């Protein structure tokens, strides 16, 4: 049992989206994680306990939303109700229980050229003849579209659903009803849109329909804090993850400059999590509220479970950028070094004792360019043991806290230390099990063995109590 006079235990949970990969011939049949120079991640593995995790179940490749739910202790078969609501809440739209939302990604993308949900419908046959039109929508269009969709009840519906109806059937019915009711309203908006005017000028066909994806209902679940007894916060600029966190009652921290893509400032994320886990001795960051322009103050006494989501590594996997993925992992390692420094400074005050946990939510191998079923490495250690594994406080004094950009290595570029791909890392574990490096291969030798994501929170909580 935890003695009440002991420092309160708090966890920094770093989720590296898409971290897992497979052995690559160009890296001497090692994974990007194995060839990356990640001394801080290796020290966490060396200082703690390790294992391989199947986020949902063995052999199942999954999406980020389902895998996150599983990791955070929610049974998908009971709670999952589509991703649309997560996306909508993540972009700032308030949703009540029972509201339905669809994913219409391009509409809400301010400046980035993306695969679009805009498509061309042949009115005579009712068949979509082409899809995936691309176009850049300006920010002023977004508000218009949001309003337009809102007033057309496309985004918000409080459906009276028959209880017990399977979700797959519910989705089909909702989509069908919406398409039947609102199909005629799309062309009036879309045909006159500047994107289409440009396409006409370029001799291309026009988009006259919006395809609806990811039907999702605002889920009703017990809050994370009630299930786990830990006050949770999250830094997740990626909208679907932020929306998922909000659905579970997790406060979403503001982190200036954190973007959820390659332009992100990892230092800002580390700083926000460190402050949230250090409060009240440091001021807690403000938190995001869907439907409101202003952020509200975070909990004055801080949080016990700080979830730091990193998306860029998953993007590198989707972009099939093997060298960038390895370089990106090195940047993640650097930010984790900054986080450990900030938390160790806070731990010195004596009120809190910190733990660091790092894992992924699914593999995104660069060879496939998509999510796959390979398990992800999992590591968890006490911050004090991490300090021991890196050789003491002096290691931290060499870590600058300045923000830094992610590397800009293009796919096919060289890895400066490519020779490391032929080397074996040598070392002894500092504490915990025999694992002394963080990667997919080494983690298999960890004391936790191979486990599923639904067991993860139990492992973390048990470790907090036991160690
Ligand atoms: Zn992905």
UniProtKB/TrEMBL annotation:
Pathway membership, UniProt: Carbohydrate degradation
UniProt superkingdom: Eukaryota
A GO molecular-function descriptor: phosphoglycerate mutase activity
Enzymatic reactions: (2R)-2-phosphoglycerate = (2R)-3-phosphoglycerate
Residue intervals of the Metalloenzyme domain: 10-244, 302-381
Pfam families: Metalloenzyme (PF01676), PhosphMutase (PF10143)
One GO process term, biological-process aspect: glycolytic process
CDD domains: iPGM_like
Keyword list, A-Z: Glycolysis
Annotated family: Belongs to the BPG-independent phosphoglycerate mutase family. A-PGAM subfamily.
Protein purpose: Catalyzes the interconversion of 2-phosphoglycerate and 3-phosphoglycerate.
Protein name in UniProt: Metalloenzyme domain-containing protein
Organism the protein comes from: Salvia splendens
Organism taxonomic ancestry: Eukaryota, Viridiplantae, Streptophyta, Embryophyta, Tracheophyta
